[in-house]
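Subject: sequence -> structure tokens, single chain

Hey, anyone have a minute? Need the predicted structure for the following. Not urgent.
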Amino acid sequence: MSPKTWTDTLLPILGNMRAELGKQDIMTVASLTGAELQGPNTIYLRFWDDEWLISFPDGVIHGLSGQLCTPDKEVTLLYYLTHSDGTTPANRWVSFHDLPNGMFYFQAFQGYSGNRLARSFVNNVEAFEQAASSLGGERVEGGDVMYAFWPLPRIGLAAQYWRGDDEFAARAYVLFDATASHYLTTDGLAVLGSQLVSKLIKAPRGKYGM
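Reply:
Had a minute. Here:
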């Protein structure tokens, strides 16, 4: 399933997701998701670089800076808020293949994530480092270089890059915190992986830009 297909599947039930959120206790939701309470009927949640306020019990999402919450973002945020179980992130990275049912979609995911990254940076590890740093990525152990990102408070992703040589082309992979499936479906995590790749490709590369 592609990221777009996952979003399209859930769009018709956005109203049901809002209703489900409204039935839950706001303090419990904040605790399970890592969101912050903003008064008795509102929580604050950061999603990538955007800041959102979610009101209870109607589940309406407002941008802190006045930005509109597009349907695809609503889908991700509402699913995260209604399905998170509070499991503590493991800070251990696993492949998409290791996510529930991920083995069936690994090749497709790798095609529009890691392979796309490898092609974009053309064996330029320094440019990859610059791009990842500019997005606020945290350097972690793995590959020739790897950076971790937290698009939502309890969901970690990592972009891993391996330099190519005379025998092997450069390789890249998007990895996930081992507990990520406690917060989004595998298809939803694929959406975040695709978003991370797009952000890295578009990010400034400084003097290493091509």
